[in-house]
Write a structure and sequence with these properties.
By secondary structure, this protein is an alpha/beta fold. It has a single domain, classed as NAD(P)-binding Rossmann-like Domain (Rossmann fold), CATH 3.40.50.720. The chain has ten helices and seven strands. It has helices at 25-36, 64-73, 93-111, 136-141, 150-157, 165-180, 205-212, 214-222, 229-240, 258-266, and strands spanning 16-20, 40-45, 55-58, 78-83, 115-124, 191-197, 251-254. Strands 3-2-1-4-5-6-7 form a seven-stranded parallel sheet, with helices on both faces. Helix 1 links the parallel strand 1 (16-20) and strand 2. The chain is globular. The relative contact order is 0.14.
């Protein structure tokens, strides 16, 4: 898919953006667009791939000590963070919760002193987080969840790999964390929002299809096509830009209309047929 005309400008001119999960999929496309739009990319990944990255930091975001070392190594005066790193539902449940939720939160909170006033934090959540209102007790219990407590939490709240529940929960809790922190750093005009992709054609799409089985087949009957990283990254870039200072704690579905379909189905709203 070719770039749209808006990419001819320099929307992120002079900005320094940290992109986690920069080596593949959505994270790689975010890094590419940041570079194209005039920004510098500080990439974070467990894999060594420095394409579209000015500086690459190798880090396992499921490990507390590694995250602390990463934050110490990163420079100050950062204008934005794109939290794109994540594990699929086929990974061990403790790793999924560790990277997608606990590690992401820990890294972001440690990074706040290194951010410029007016910085933007964008969390890549998922359509899988759509059902967060039905998971409130577990989400509340996870708010102070530490790395050392993940295994016990998984057992107590049933967020195992069965049916991809660990992945779904990690995204549900991430959306809620984003909403709750809409004004946490308002005194410095630091904002945080999230983007929720639907099924996206990346190297881990097969992991979702394997986990969800028949549920994935039903979704694909409704959707016209899977998304592409090129569909998701521009929304992240928009939220990182200076055009969005009054968007706070918002989750933007970027899913080809799937979340609207689910809302219509839940509320028994007859959909317009084309």
């Amino acid at each position: 898919m070719s770039d749209q005309s808006w990419t001819n400008g320099k929307l992120l001119d002079g900005k320094t953006i940290v992109v986690t999960g920069c080596s593949s999929g959505i994270g790689k496309e975010i890094a590419r667009l940041v570079k194209k739009l005039g920004g510098d990319v500080l990439g974070v990944d467990v894999n060594k791939s420095d394409e579209y990255v000015d500086e690459l930091y190798i880090a396992d975001l499921s490990d507390r000590r590694t995250i602390k070392a990463l934050v110490q190594a990163l420079p100050t005066r950062i204008d934005g963070i794109a939290n794109s790193a994540g594990l699929p539902p086929t990974a061990p449940a403790n790793k999924v919760i560790g990277v997608n939720l606990v590690g992401l939160k820990y890294f972001t909170e440690l990074m706040i002193p290194k951010l410029n006033d007016g910085a933007s934090i964008v969390n890549v959540a998922s359509l899988a987080g759509f059902g967060w209102p039905q998971a409130i007790p577990a989400i509340k219990a996870s708010e102070s969840l530490g790395f050392e407590d993940i295994d016990d939490f998984i057992t107590k709240y049933g967020v195992t790999n069965d049916g991809g529940r660990s992945y779904f929960f990690s995204k549900e809790a991430l959306i809620v964390w984003t909403m709750k922190n809409r004004w946490t750093w308002r005194d410095r005009n630091i904002r945080m929002n999230s983007v929720s992709p639907g099924p996206v054609d990346t190297p881990i799409l097969k992991d979702f299809l394997e986990t969800l089985g028949d549920r994935a087949d039903e979704d694909r009957k409704v959707m016209d096509r899977p998304g592409l990283p090129e569909d998701i990254a521009p929304v992240v870039i928009f939220l990182l830009s200076d055009m969005t200072h009054w968007i706070r704690g918002t989750n933007i579905p970027t899913d080809g209309g799937m979340s609207s379909h689910l809302h219509c189905k839940i509320h028994m709203l007859e959909e317009t047929k084309q």
